[in-house]
Amino acid sequence: xxxxxxxxxxxxxxxxxxxxxxxxxxxxVNEKEAAxxxxxxxxxxxxxxxxxxxGQEAKKYDVTVMVNxxxxxxxxxxxxxxxxxxxxILNTEWTASLRKKGLLTRDARVKERKKPxxxxxxxxxxxxKR
Length: 130
Fold this sequence. Notes:
31% of the residues lie in helices and 23% in strands.
């Protein structure tokens, strides 16, 4: 098998394992075409931002992604981070440009747990005096 570069991206409850291989520009996510998997407007363009930051063409590489957990937004951002990390392994000189665009920073914000006696994590029931 050809040499591949792997990056793991996480966001919220999503985890994406991204493999990058020199190829013809085929982009598959969970064995589906990327545009068929991410149907929201702008998601595929957002995922491909690491290629633009490094000055590479997405058509030079085949990208295979296995993503699970979370929702659409979290999965898209997890794939983007995984792709940026795979490109960083491919060529370490691209690290500065990827970091400058904020593509190597893991967004650590996750849903806060619900506390007892509250309606949500911080929302308290309405106070009634009488």
